[in-house]
Amino acid sequence: MCGIVGYIGFQNAAEVILEGLRRLEYRGYDSAGIAIAGRDSIQVVRSVGKLQNLSAKLQECPLMGNMGIGHTRWATHGEPSERNAHPHLDCTRQIVVIHNGIVENYRALKQELINQGHVFQSETDSEVIVHLLEEMWRGQSEQDLISVTAQALTRLEGAHAILIMSSLFPNFLLAARLGNAGGIAIGRGEHEMYCASDIPAILPHTREMVFLETGEIARIDSSGYQCFSLTGGPVTKETFRIPWDPVSAARGHYTHFMQKEIYEQPEFLTDTLRNRLNFENSEIVLEQFPFSDQALNALEKITIVACGTSYYAGLVGKYLIEELARIPVEVDYASEFRYRQPLIGPESMIVAISQSGETVDTLAAIDEARQKQALLSAIVNVPGSQISRICTGLIFMHAGPEIGVASTKAFSCTLVDLFLLGFYLGQKRGTLAQERRTALLEQLIRLPKLVSDVLELDSAIKELAAQYYEASDFLYLGRGINYPIALEGAHKLKEISYIHAEGCPAGEMKHGINALIDRHLPVVTIATHDRLYHKMLSNIQQVHARDAIIIALVSQGESEISKFARHVLELPDLGHLLNPILNVVPLQLLAYYIALKRGCDIDQPRNLAKSVTVE
Ligand code: F6R
Fold first, then answer.
1. Among 258, 307, 331, 335, which residue has the most ligand 1 atoms within 8 Å of its CB, making it the best to mutate?
2. How many structural domains are present in the chain?
């Protein structure tokens, strides 16, 4: 996950920034760079690999100046190399930019800028930003800078956190945030200002911080900052005082880790996609999946084993892998697997899913598969965990540390990994034509931004929670690939609010669940567009006929379901295979706000542990 640090004041900026970047090393990176504004020019130093390489370069050729920006990069577009490392300069070397996020429309913008005569130095998507600014700033006065920059930035599709510096305007930095590609914290010192993607980078210098929201841009000089909306007008920001203790500091301005982790999803989904999409030949690259094409082609079956939330992710995986790679997939509770004499052998691959990588039942299921000579693979979040050490094929979630006991961001990152796995197997086994692969990659790259759009339902969901937090039961209904999302929605609510909740395939209601339905029961229905939409619509009508309180998740522009549902939450449509990742987000928020209203211990629910290392 890329890191961003900026400084303006009276100290040596390069030293402050390098120290800040060191505190972000835990996020992972493959290259780094710093730009310092000199008297009338900008100097940039970049290097591949660890920060000590950058530091050695800075010792050889020190950068002097009191304003600068620095970045640690984790490659998405273009290999980790010095020229792909940030900061990126424009053609005149007067503007410099660092960026977190993915410019989804960078190919079209790059072509447009090349046609206008711009020369690109890197293969990155980020470089289009600096040339776009060069183009749009031309001939503009400082007075119009914010509005022209806002115009330029709103041309970028996707979610972004950006710092901009220029020798044309040598007394201030610009920071902007669009969507949730990571935050930007602005910290105040005495005659100096700091900014960073993460609080720890600047915490030793300041505890007074403001946080940019999506759609905001700030002008930061050594005495303070001014914030504006990208659509126009100044914005007044609340200042937070960050406590010293490391736990509260890590939680930042969120009330709970779970809330923070829900909000971090766009950023970590971007990390999950990093380096894995090859647009040149429309392929997926799995860096630690060393099975031969022959072995993958010979596979007769895949068995997914997992517990809890990871198990529900596995159920979604069954739909994804079967559709993309046309291999039969079975999904087992890891705690049951070894006790049922499973039919598994060298023609099978086991896919263990575990956020912690330490769950004892999942480890035992892997052992069972190992004894039967199945191929061993795993989707894991924690590098170095036991599961990551014993499986041959690994697909990391890249969800970052998940502290809240209820899993949220690890779930959505796992769904992406399962999609990548299905795609990869499909590409190896020839079940995905090039055209379909290209279309799927185009959809996949839009995912982080759309999750960020879904998070804007926050206040609507909070209101719903205030209405229904006293209910004693909830029912969640879905069909097809959204049935496991219904299960996960119910699971989240149970875990943190202690309300009884059930997830059910909507077509099964008439076989029993209908008996539970009455006018007091909130029924959450997942009815976004897919080939089962009409079936879902008729299930919703049946629930409506029994007077239940219907809360429906629908695709934007839907009008039919609102005739029957008491509440409708509209979501973007990213195609039936990726919609589940969007659909789970409102269910996470609903569980969170209901638990909050009930005064529950959200991050550490009773009787539950984050890592289950006993049977
Ligand atoms: C749910 C939750 C648990 C875990 C389960 C498996 O929110 O956190 O149900 O999903 O204990 O844990 P991992 O994925 O670490 O194997």
1. 307
2. 3
What are the CB-based long-range contacts (under 8 Å, 24+) for 339-344? 342/303, 342/368, 342/369, 342/372, 344/301, 344/303, 344/368, 344/369, 344/372, 344/374
State in Å: Cα 100 to ligand 1 middle. Answer: 29
Q: Given this model, what pLDDT does residue 614 score?
A: 65
Query: Ligand 1 centroid vs 238 CA: distance in angstroms?
Result: 36
- Are residues 45 and 172 part of one domain? yes
> Per-residue pLDDT tens for 205-258?
998 899 898 899 999 999 999 999 999 889 999 898 876 666 667 788 899 999
Tell how far the Cα of 120 is from the centroid of ligand 1, in angstroms.
45
**Which residues sit opposite 306 in a β-bridge?**
333
Distance (Å) from CA 402 to ligand 1 centroid: 11
Structure tokens at 609: 């542990």
Ligand 1 proximity of 388 Cβ (cutoff 6 Å): no
- Decide: 407 in ligand 1 pocket, CB within 6 A: yes
- Domain shared by 370 and 458, yes or no: no
pLDDT in tens, 152-185: 999 999 889 999 999 989 899 999 999 877 789 9
3-class DSSP state of 535: helix
The answer, yes or no, to whether any atom of ligand 1 lies below 6 A from the CB of 360, is no
How far is 284 from 432, CA to CA, in rounded Å? Answer: 12
Hey, whose CA ends up nearest to atom 9 of ligand 1? 308
Q: Which atom of ligand 1 is nearest to the CA of 306?
A: 16
Domain that holds residue 203: 3-242
Q: Which of 392, 413, 445 is the last residue of a domain?
A: 445
For residue 608, how many other CB atoms are within 10 A of its CB? 12
Instruction: Decide: 385 in ligand 1 pocket, CB within 6 A.
Output: no
Q: Please list the active-site residues.
A: 2, 610
φ, ψ dihedrals at 229, nearest 5°: -80, 145
- This prediction has a pTM of 0.80
